[in-house]
């Protein structure tokens, strides 16, 4: 009966071009969709699989505005059964603030008699890329933590976690309760079904407000790498360009 | 003093750690290096060439296998021993993990994947966000400043004049709690087969546009015809289409061939940092606005599955002629 908490973050889906807000403090998200990072999709999948395998439960948590309910519902639709929204302006929260706010929820639920055996997070957020929220959370909860795990298995009172190491696959065996941050690649996340989506709509999302003021991240501004004017010479379109390509290869002296 | 956690393999400091040693010279402070576990032969000389004045060495049973918190304890001990005001590591998975632990233990901020130092009083850095497509200027007011240096933020280069490196073993207090998460065993991975890719004169790149695990035949053939190697983007290895040792980019190999032919690669910044040193880039892509196309010297627009076989055929035809 492994009780799993999985933490996700709503982030802009910046496949295309990025523009910044006027004050350069954030990305202009007016015309972009939102998503969660691939790491977190894998974390959600691992949470659900672990809950199923152990007859436990998977609860999803996110810190952000009510807009984050979209990502919370996605996680509910694939099999999480409980949800917490930490209602806060995510932009004002630095990584230490986020970890503290999550720790508050974990502690509050412990007071109510519910201990999360496992807390899963993404290895790093797709937008801020801080690489530290999970580790800071582990310190706040005084729990062991492994970063960048790709697969996990709960065996008795331990979790066996596999992570890509310098010399192969590192295998950790960590006593529960523990915190793990997940790296994409070890598992294929599932897609929500229509009945899953319907079920997700009926789950009550617990909404909490963090205590205290966030310290922030120390961000001064965002900037985009300078774009060089394109100097590209188009050799042609489609297979008809093959001769021009081989001409070029010959000119460069690499054709044989 | 600046402290750099140096990761090593049998040959010495790994490339990204040497990049970090190069990068921190901008701080114009003497540099100490910390090595945890075994010290490879000749490391002190190698670090001396990079201008490292002091090599601190943490050893003992706690470091037999990797335990991130124990490594962080070693970094904190080395920070105290050296009096470092800036504590750094390369932005590898291990470097970022250990630096995050260090920041927690010292109750300071941590900046991951820094690419430039923009000011030193107060310390102002730019770091990669959005997977490298944007930068965040960040103020690091805490003492010490803890940061990791993004892979390939600079080219590893020995110092202008080598120094002699003093080697000291440091005492590290590792608690039982620090060993709660420790590698129990390691399963051998594939041997490093990226050597051919790093030294090839021609690299044929393949991205998501390859389409499937079966979509690489023509690309491999083109690489073979040109006596080159195949390199792929991260999505290709993430999807399990090709092995990791073929990956080019921030978390893969950095290549500098005479010619790079990225096919079906959009050119995300993480990939670009690994291939931008190519002398000539010929992009093959269906999207004329893809960053890889606009940054390339030459481009062919269209479906790589039609274009690449035509190039292969043309190469064979001219060879027969």
Low-confidence stretches of chain A: none
Quickly count the helices of chain A: 6
**Helix coverage percent of residues of chain B?**
25-40%
Shape of chain A: globular
Q: How large a portion of the residues of chain A is in β-strands, by DSSP E?
A: 25-35%
Rough outline of chain B:
elongated
Measured distance between first and last alpha carbons of chain B: 65 Å
Order of helices and strands of chain B: EEEHEHEHEHEEEEEEHEHEHEHEHEH
What is the C-alpha radius of gyration of chain B, as a whole number of Å?
22 Å
User: In terms of quaternary structure, what is this?
Assistant: heterodimer
Main beta-sheet annotation of chain A: 9 strands, mixed
Secondary-structure-derived class of chain B = alpha/beta
Percentage of residues in strands of chain B = 25-35%
Q: Compute the average pLDDT of chain A.
A: 94
Give your account of this protein's structure.
Chain A is an alpha/beta fold. In chain A, strand 7 and strand 8 form a beta hairpin. In chain A, helix 2 packs across helix 5 and helix 3 packs across helix 4. The longest helix of chain A has 17 residues. The termini of chain A are far apart. The mean pLDDT of chain A is 94. Chain B has 321 residues and is α/β, with parallel strands linked by helices. Chain B is built from 10 helices and 17 strands. Chain B has a 9-stranded mixed sheet with strand order 9-8-7-10-6-1-4-5-11, sandwiched between helices. In chain B, helix 3 packs across helix 4 and helix 6 packs parallel to helix 10. The radius of gyration of chain B is 22 Å and the shape is elongated. The termini of chain B are far apart. The model of chain B has no long low-confidence stretch (mean pLDDT 93). Classes of the chains: A alpha/beta (256), B alpha/beta (321). Strand 9 of chain A pairs antiparallel with strand 12 of chain B.
């Amino acid at each position: 009966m492994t009780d799993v908490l999985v933490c996700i973050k709503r982030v802009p889906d910046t496949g295309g071009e990025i523009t910044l807000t006027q004050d350069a403090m954030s990305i202009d998200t007016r015309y972009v969709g939102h998503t969660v990072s691939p790491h977190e999709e894998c974390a959600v999948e691992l949470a659900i699989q672990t809950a199923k395998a152990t007859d436990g439960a998977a609860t999803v948590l996110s810190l952000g505005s009510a807009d984050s309910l979209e990502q919370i519902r996605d996680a509910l639709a694939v099999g999480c059964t409980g949800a917490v929204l930490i209602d806060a302006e995510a932009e004002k929260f630095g990584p230490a603030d986020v970890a503290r706010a999550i720790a508050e929820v974990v502690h509050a639920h412990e007071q109510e008699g519910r201990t999360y055996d496992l807390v899963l997070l993404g290895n790093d957020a797709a937008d801020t890329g801080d690489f530290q929220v999970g580790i800071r959370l582990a310190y706040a909860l005084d729990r062991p933590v492994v970063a960048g795990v790709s697969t996990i298995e709960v065996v008795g009172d331990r979790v066996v976690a596999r992570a890509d190491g310098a010399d192969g696959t590192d295998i950790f065996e960590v006593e529960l309760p523990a915190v793990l941050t997940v790296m994409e690649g070890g598992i294929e996340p599932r897609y929500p079904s229509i009945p899953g989506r319907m079920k997700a709509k009926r789950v009550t999302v617990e909404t909490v407000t963090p205590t205290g003021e966030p310290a922030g991240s120390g961000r001064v501004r965002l900037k985009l790498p300078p774009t060089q004017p394109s100097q590209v010479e188009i050799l042609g379109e489609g297979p008809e360009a093959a001769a021009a390509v081989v001409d070029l290869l010959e000119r460069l002296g690499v054709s044989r | 003093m600046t402290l750099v956690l140096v990761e090593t393999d049998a040959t010495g400091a790994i490339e990204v750690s040497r990049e970090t040693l190069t990068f921190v010279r901008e701080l114009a402070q003497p540099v100490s290096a910390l090595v945890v576990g075994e010290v490879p032969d000749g490391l002190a000389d190698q670090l001396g060439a990079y201008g490292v004045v002091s090599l601190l060495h943490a050893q003992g049973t706690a470091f037999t296998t990797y335990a991130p918190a124990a490594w962080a304890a070693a970094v904190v001990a080395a920070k105290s021993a050296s009096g470092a005001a800036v504590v750094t590591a390369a932005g590898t998975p291990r470097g970022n993990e250990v630096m995050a632990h260090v920041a927690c233990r010292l109750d300071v901020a941590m900046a991951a994947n820094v690419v430039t130092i923009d000011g030193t009083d107060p310390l102002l850095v730019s770091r990669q966000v959005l997977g490298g497509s944007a930068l965040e200027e960040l103020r690091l007011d805490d003492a010490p400043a803890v940061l990791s240096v993004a892979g390939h933020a600079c080219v590893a280069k020995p110092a202008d004049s080598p120094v002699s490196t003093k080697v000291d073993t440091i005492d590290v207090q590792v608690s039982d709690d620090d060993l709660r998460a420790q590698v129990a065993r390691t399963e051998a991975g594939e041997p490093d087969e990226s050597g051919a890719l790093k030294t090839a004169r021609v690299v044929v790149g393949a991205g998501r546009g390859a389409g499937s695990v079966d979509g690489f035949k023509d690309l491999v053939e083109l690489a073979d015809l040109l006596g080159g190697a195949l390199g792929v983007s991260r999505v290709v290895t993430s999807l399990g289409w090709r092995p990791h040792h073929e990956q080019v980019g921030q978390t893969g190999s950095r290549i500098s061939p005479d010619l790079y032919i990225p096919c079906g690669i959009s050119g995300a910044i993480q990939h670009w940092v690994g291939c931008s040193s190519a002398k000539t880039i010929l992009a093959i892509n269906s999207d004329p606005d893809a960053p890889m196309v606009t940054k390339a010297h030459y481009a062919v627009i269209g479906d790589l599955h039609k274009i690449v076989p035509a190039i292969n055929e043309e190469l064979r035809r001219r060879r027969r002629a």
